[in-house]
Amino acid sequence: MQHNIFTTMRSLKLSEGCKATQVYAFNPTGGEAGGGGYGGKVGGKFLQHLQDLRANSIRTKSSRNSHPPTNHNQTTRTDVSVESLLPAGLPTVDLIEPKIEPCLKSVDFVESLADVYTKVENSSQLEKSDRFLEQCAVFKGLSDPKLFRNSLRSARQHAVDVHSKVVLASWLKCERREDELIGLSAMDCCGRNLECPRACLMSGYDPDSVKDPCVCLRGQPEEDVLMGDEDYLTFDADEGGGGDDDCDMSFCIGDDEIRCVRYNVASLSRPFRAMLYGEFKESRREKINFTQNGISAEGMRGAMVFSQTKRLGTFDPKIVLELLSLANRFCCDELKSACDAHLASLVCDIESAVILIEYGLEEGANLLVAACLQVFLRELPFSMNNPYVMRLLCGSEGRERLASVGHASFLLYYFLSQIAMEEEMKSNNTVMLLERLGECATEDWQKQLAYHLLGVVMLERKEYKDAQNWFEEAVEAGHVYSSVGVARAKYHRGHKYSAYKMMNSLISDHSPVGWMYQERSLFCTGKEKLMDLNTATELDPTLPFPYMCRAVLLVQENKLESAISELNKIIGFKVSPDCLELRAWISMALEDFEGALRDVRALLTLDPNHMMFYGKKHGDQLVELLRPLVQQCSQADCWMQLYDRWSSVDDIGSLAVVHQMLANGPWKSLLRFRQSLLLLR
């Protein structure tokens, strides 16, 4: 039961639901904006000052050691002015910008949903999986990950070919985040036919089969499962007439002579039949020299056994690889299928997959390549650390090799690019995977998505010219939201007026949407900026950036309490790590160190790797700097605070207390459970 609870927690991907406006340096003219923090060198000077405060606090405590003991829960706090705490000033509105969402985003979301639903209903059985994948892309931008997973599950249910089943099942497994659980193998079966690694290697359309018991639970040999022929289970080898008395010819390989039945060998393929019963001279010979055909005597004996029994049995993998090569050379389809299935059943880890996939690609063994690819995908993101795997999946040559056996698709690179963007958006591997995604895109929505994602990544890499080009490609393909990326790239390249005109035109040509006014607010000032921010909030109250921007404007007017109130509006119904970070910043300016520490602790619960001050300092470092400036609580006091805040439905305060207790207390399993309940709520 405990496993199921925490698997469910991981699968919710709560940080996804908390994604919001990211704070970036936004200074196209250079200067000190990129130095850190919201405003130039604010972060560095501020942290240095906090370190000085901490040192003063420690010295104050040490100087009081000779005085009578005081309550250990009380801490004397040094009086600090705003000027000395923030010597470089507070954040300015010119230094923040909203994040461009890496997903399909329509002007009319309801219309898009209705359109996709119509496509699903009107599609044939063989097309339903692709239509559900399109629905996945539409749901990807929503804060509820369950909608995306439901569509992904439907796509897997209606998948027809082995390749689609392998990729979709691996994606579903990745969504459950089982890679974070210790002791689980990537190839372990969860008991559901929907994600069973063996069931995925069976071709055919059977949407109801996902409800059946997993094939792993039946105890059926994997080779027989992949071959899909129940007769193999009861076949008697003696029925093949394989005795030496029945042999009427021999194949000579070196000094070895392999006796066999001419009819059985001829039944392997048409080329063998033509050679043994046609007009060739071999048809009249009892002994045929087979030395120059690239197969060993052991391999030929294996072929003779297969010609009699139609099974490979317990052959050594090297022999099976020889038989696979022989089957390709002499067009032995049945033998090739058997070798393909047998070798696919041997793939169990990265090492074996790396070795066998080369044979599969060279010999065109579709099932073997699928089995190897399945291991790579189910091992994500760890398999991305393997240089061979990344060369195969990222490079153009690798895509061509995979395409030659039917394993290069938009679906595959969509999955890979999503994982790569989660791991490291700016990496070269991410760019190459997205380029492969664009090469595989055939439908309009696929091109829109691929080009838009490339634009987002290039913008993150500050390659603004390339970003603008990719965003323009996405707009040309029909993705209106990519116009935001075009305008942003133009602004970063110094064309502010052009960006402003573009957003004006977009607002004039389409029904008003919140993100349009939000984007235009970046390119104007004064009352016009405030009007756009207010309009954006009226049209879409869930956008965090307008609240943050208005809060910063209030800070510039020295209305810090009003700025906190503005941020409370969005935090009250949509918790955002970046809004918590900004509120903590302003709280420190107000010398409300307890409030600042509360927000930083809650922020780290939602995003443990969050970097403060424009990525210069980890949140844990700020916690250590703020701790001496607030009242210290014992573990018992923390439990009382947790009870009070839990009862008053103060989720932010409760998360902060749990974060503090997890750092100090021994009751971690119970605290983790309470933390999970808070995050679910």
From TrEMBL:
Residues 57-79 are annotated as: Disordered. It comes from the Eukaryota. GO terms for biological process: negative regulation of ethylene-activated signaling pathway. Residues 247-347 form the BTB domain. Pathway: Protein modification; protein ubiquitination. Pfam families: BTB. This is BTB domain-containing protein. It comes from Populus deltoides (Eastern poplar).
